[in-house]
Amino acid sequence: MPVKIYHDEDADVNIVRSKTVAFIGYGNQGRAQALNLRDSGVTNIIIGNIDDDYAKQAREDGFNPISIEEAVSQGDILMLLIPDEDQQTVWNEKIRKNIKPNSTLVVASGYNIAFNLLDLPDDMDAVMVAPRMIGAGVRDRYVQNIPYPCFVSVEKDVSGAALATCLSIACAIGATRGNGAVGSSCREEAGIDLFAEQALWPEIMAIFREGYNVLREAGFSDEAILFDMYLSKEPAEIFERAADEGFVKQLKYHSRTSQYGQLSTMNRNDGNEIREKFRRVLNDNILSGNFAKKWSDTKWAAEELAKEWKEVEKAPIVQADQRVRDVLKPDRKK
User: Assuming Cys at both sites, which of 27, 60, 65, 151 could form a disulfide with 184, CB separation 3.0 to 4.6 Å?
Assistant: First the structure.
């Protein structure tokens, strides 16, 4: 069954214009979405943020940031746009006891709702409006009237109007233009996101790491290896072509030798080993909630992340990368 895709004509932007919208966080997504809402005619926007550089940016943008607690108590709509790993703590300490009755929670990441990390009031609607784009991209594309992909979902509908509110917000930030906003769920958004982070990209990075090791053992130079692998930005060009024209169809821009090498190798790799590894990551670590449970321990998370950074810096490809970059610096001493 095809998923539902929502367009401008499915949304009533006047719904969000009639509400007080409280942004919790003015960072990557917070700033972009607040500015887009304001440009769409939403006048009652409150920024709840600690007194930091983000609050300074909000003031420069013409907002008057207040404490998170104050913002929450006034918001008909709460845009919870702080990092995933901070949401549960901030929710429990600053948000939960100050929530205005019959309000709506909006998240841009499904993580905390998917893994039941937020204790939602009984009378609160919960929806997701999740741009598949960094905040700067959300803002730039809105200003240039260019569509961008977005996932939307209704996770809790007490009022009976949660979908209308969700689509009104999506429309006001420019997410229902063009191809429209794709109906999804917090579980789907979080699951796919975590899978990319814990399965797809680690496998790709490991392949590049071991590719470097093999080529270096064969006597090839760091400069030649790294430029051919990624410093030339050719992979970025390939991914852009794949997005625009198709995962496989982009191969038509490669030489016939390249086409044959890639297709013949891929077609004869049944992928069983990788598939089983991916299934374990998805089922045992992500969908089981095991990762979310561990990551909720912020002390453990900080220590583990620091340990992983320390470990990766030992990798030969990382050290080679730095050496090559130092040589290529335009202001290097001669």
Answer: 151
